[in-house]
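Tip: read the tokens left to right.
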């Protein structure tokens, strides 16, 4: 992903830009006592007056002298071991020094304070949050982020909590990027969006001494369909058109044919208390039509890839339950109503609306299972092979 986007990892920072004396106890004041020609100060707010430089050098010398007098007792407090994957940022009398380590680091007691910085790659996840896409769809989206510190001095001087700052930056960038895209582009171009987010986040975190190595979007579930999903022109999938056909037929039967066609018809359907006269057998159930439409997409290659038998317990809007099966164990596979002849490998229970969203590629099997909209009885690994069936619908 990084190679395709043209992004190159940053090397470790140039630690030599922070000058210090050869003796070590004068710290970063060498440039003040003995200025080097053409040298640039490491910090703009470093003290430049002679009294400040003299006091700093005198206190550092007394601290070093006290360390020698009380050695080896003071060695237990002054000697620190820094592993290879860490750097120690030392502040001597409030002023930063060159990052110390790896190895043994000598600190002056009562004068130096330090902070350890881990240079290894860290990982965290952005918790799923509800976002609205450009076409009005509401979806739950999270992300997985990996980053590392390439300049420990900048990470300590510019940001207080690197984990929180990076998480908030990633979440804000993700929200802004998804607000400009419709639901279909988000589902089909997740990799491209992740690459763009990677570059945008690094433009911000580079000033903090951080580099984001990996950014991957995770669409958990589609909570609300786009506003124009039932209008018709954008339905280019045969299953989506079939769902629209059965959905319109069910609404006309509920309304008794008195409702005029239009987008407002959907809002007048009462799924809790259906009117009397809309018998369950008057129209073909939506779930039955959707599952029957799977038959042309079944093949021997799909059977060899999945090799399992599924039983679907679909809960209809009226509260009743219908049973269907998808047998992908022999031949080209078969879809039908009722219980399969043999014992199914997995029993799946879900609502009719969730089944339509699943077959129309608006909901992923893993996301439906994690959100509780898909209940599985049997091997979960076999149940997740339904993703292969959904890929065959493209």
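Filled-in amino acids:
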């Amino acid at each position: 992903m990084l190679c395709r986007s043209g992004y190159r990892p940053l090397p470790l920072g140039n630690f030599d830009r922070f000058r210090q004396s050869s003796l070590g106890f004068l710290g970063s004041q060498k440039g003040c006592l003995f200025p080097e020609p053409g040298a640039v100060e490491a910090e703009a707010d470093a003290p430049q007056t002679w009294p400040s430089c003299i006091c700093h050098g005198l206190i550092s010398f007394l601290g070093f002298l006290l360390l020698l007098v009380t050695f080896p007792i003071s060695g237990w407090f002054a000697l620190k071991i820094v592993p290879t994957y860490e750097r120690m940022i030392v502040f001597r009398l409030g002023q930063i020094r060159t990052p110390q380590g790896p190895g043994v680091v000598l600190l002056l007691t009562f004068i130096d304070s330090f902070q350890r910085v881990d240079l290894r790659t860290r990982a965290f996840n952005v918790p799923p949050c509800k976002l609205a896409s450009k076409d009005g769809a509401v979806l739950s989206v999270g992300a997985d982020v990996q980053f590392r510190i390439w300049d420990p001095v900048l990470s300590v001087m510019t940001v207080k909590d690197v984990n929180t700052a990076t998480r908030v930056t990633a979440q804000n960038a993700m929200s802004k990027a998804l607000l400009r895209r419709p639901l279909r582009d988000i589902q089909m171009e997740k990799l491209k969006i992740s690459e763009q987010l990677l570059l945008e986040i690094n433009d911000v975190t580079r000033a903090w001494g951080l580099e984001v190595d990996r950014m991957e979007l995770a669409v958990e579930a589609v909570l609300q369909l786009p506003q124009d999903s039932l209008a018709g022109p954008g339905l280019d999938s045969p299953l989506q058109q079939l769902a629209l056909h059965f959905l319109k037929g069910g609404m006309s039967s509920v309304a008794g044919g008195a409702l005029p066609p239009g987008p407002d018809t959907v809002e007048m359907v009462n799924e809790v208390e259906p009117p009397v006269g809309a018998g369950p057998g008057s129209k073909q159930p939506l779930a039955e039509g959707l599952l029957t439409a799977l038959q042309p997409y079944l093949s021997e290659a799909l059977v060899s890839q999945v090799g399992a038998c599924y039983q679907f317990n679909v809960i209809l809007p009226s509260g009743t339950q219908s049973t269907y099966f998808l047998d992908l164990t022999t031949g080209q596979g078969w879809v039908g109503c009722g219980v399969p002849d043999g014992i199914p490998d997995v029993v799946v229970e879900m609502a009719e609306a969730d089944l339509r969203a699943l077959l129309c590629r608006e909901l992923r099997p893993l996301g439906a299972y994690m959100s509780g909209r898909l209940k599985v009885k049997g091997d979960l690994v076999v149940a997740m092979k339904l993703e292969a069936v959904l890929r065959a619908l493209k």
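The CA atoms of residues 53 and 256 lie 92 Å apart. The two ends are 24 Å apart (CA to CA).
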